[in-house]
Specification:
Elements lengths: L1 H23 L4 H6 L5 H11 L5 H13 L13 H36 L4 H15 L2 H16 L11 H11 L3 H37 L2 H8 L4 H31 L1 H7 L4 H11 L2 H29 L1 H4 L2
Helix pairs in contact: 1-14, 5-6, 5-9, 5-11, 5-14, 6-9, 7-9, 7-12, 8-9, 9-11, 11-14, 12-13, 13-14
Length: about 325
């Protein structure tokens, strides 16, 4: 309950800050809607319909009231409800963020375990060097290089777009046993997922390595070795389990960060998610859409944090007693 109350306060702060930025931003929304219409009466009517003729505090209270009823407003540019726009692009962003997280987990955790168990050996040096390169590589540059080298030169993957939605591809698999759409979806998402997940992979690798090294020096590891348990079982069932709490925390935080930070990757690969729509709306001065996307990402971030608290309290009951 305390986490939920903190989350509500965070969301209120996000709403307030975004509304303040909207008020301070240059430009007139009427120009975006009316275009080149010179009729002042028409422009005044649009301003009145949008409530822009009201004092700023009245507009703020009206906006809060709309949010409490589930309305994010209407797009100046697309003439549609912001809720519909966010819902249309949300799935693509979630697909990309989850795919990047899967890439990071599949690569980083085994790499971190190998690095920790083979300290000061070539495998450890290679993992450390790879982590340093991954953390230091800008994702927009990596995305462009992947397009130029892998997509253009080798011709293995598409360079832009989404192809087909994941849920549509899975429907075809379960309904008709057709995997063509799923393979198409994989071909489109591999390069963006690698681009977005590289930094994440390097971070989790370093975190897993340091956590494993700390755990390997504890007495219970010596006791399990004395019992004759296989090294693989000791590393992955006992040692890695005790290393998971900080890893899960970072996973949850980074998943929320990936959803909000996929803007550059979506722009590079023309991935039709919230990030690409955010950039387009910001360029057009479509502030209702900008506010709606930022608020939606903030809600996702808060919910993910609460779920992370619940998961690692489950893994370590001592956390829930604090």
């Amino acid at each position: 309950m305390r986490r939920v109350l903190q989350g509500i306060f965070v969301l209120w702060a996000v709403v307030t800050i975004m509304f303040g930025l909207r008020a301070l931003s240059p430009g007139d929304p009427v120009n975006l809607i009316a275009g080149q219409v010179p009729d002042q009466a028409t422009r005044d009517q649009i301003r009145q319909d949008l409530g822009l003729d009201q004092p700023m505090y009245v507009q703020y209270l009206d906006y809060l009231g709309d949010l409490l009823t589930g309305s994010l407003g209407y797009s100046y540019n697309q003439r549609r409800a912001v809720t519909d726009i966010v819902a249309q692009h949300f799935a693509a962003t979630v697909e990309l963020a989850v795919a990047a997280t899967v890439v990071a987990i599949v690569i980083a955790i085994p790499l971190g375990v190998v690095s920790a168990t083979r300290r000061n050996q070539p495998a450890d040096y290679g993992a450390t060097l790879g982590s340093l390169v991954g953390i230091s590589t800008p994702n927009f540059w990596l995305g462009i290089m992947l397009i130029l080298l892998v997509a253009e030169q080798v011709g293995m993957f598409p360079t832009s777009g989404r192809g087909v939605a994941f849920h549509d591809a899975m429907y075809m698999v379960f309904r008709y046993g057709y995997v063509g759409d799923l393979l198409s979806w994989l071909s489109y998402i591999i390069l963006p997922a690698i681009t977005l997940g590289t930094y994440f992979t390097a971070l989790i690798t370093r975190l897993t390595r340091s956590g494993m090294i700390d755990e390997l020096g504890k007495p219970y590891v010596t006791a399990t070795e004395a019992k004759g348990l296989p090294q693989t079982l000791i590393r992955y069932k006992h040692v890695l389990r005790n290393t998971l709490i900080p890893i899960i925390t970072v996973l949850g935080l980074q998943l929320g960060t990936l959803m909000g930070g996929a803007v550059i990757t979506e722009e590079v690969f023309n991935w039709p998610g919230l990030g690409l729509m955010f950039i387009e709306s910001l360029r057009n001065g479509d502030w209702p859409v900008v506010q709606g996307i930022v608020l939606f990402i903030a809600v996702a971030f808060v919910v993910i944090n609460i779920l992370v608290d619940a998961v690692y309290a489950r893994l370590n009951p001592q956390v829930s007693d604090e």
